[in-house]
Amino acid sequence: MQEKLSLEKLLVSQVRLKILRTMLPRPSEQFHIRGLVREIGTEINAVRRELSNLESIGLLVSRRSGNRVYYTLNIHSTHYSELLGLVAKTYGLGANIIANLRNLGDVRYAVLAKAFAGKRRKSSSLDVDLFVVGKVNIDMLEDIVKKEQELRGTEINYAVMGEDEFNYAKRKNDQFVIRILVQSRIMLIGDEEEFCSLT
């Protein structure tokens, strides 16, 4: 049996993992060292060292204000999207979708909007946070989404389509489906090329 990949096993430094888990979903926020220490419950020198490491690879940028140094994510970093995807698949809604895949029915694709994973504001009412294609156990999906909504304190927009309906909508250039196809996304389940293919 293949062992489940988790960020805890992928990243050696637990402090770095805690920093990434805290900062990646909040790309527009500024963090100072003592605030991060309080939030993640870790020793200050370890946090300082890991912030320096993350800044050295270009994932973070810093600015000094008085005697404080503030760190923000560099969303243009070559590593940002992949790390955000890993966090989205390891924690929260994405992780719960993956963990409950068997109970969700025959899911062909499950996609999270990158804006949702990064907790950015939606640009229009057409945006969908979670899109699922297949023969889906709707009650189970609703339960997973409801629990995440309670944790976040905000509504999650999601849509479900059967595979035939989805493929037909792609071929007919259905505006709703095209909007989903062109938005930045994190693939939770399924192959991205097949998801976007018109054949």
TrEMBL record:
GO MF, one annotated term: DNA-binding transcription factor activity
SUPFAM superfamilies documented for this protein: Winged helix' DNA-binding domain
Annotated HTH arsR-type domain residues: 1-95
Coiled-coil region(s): none
Protein name: HTH arsR-type domain-containing protein
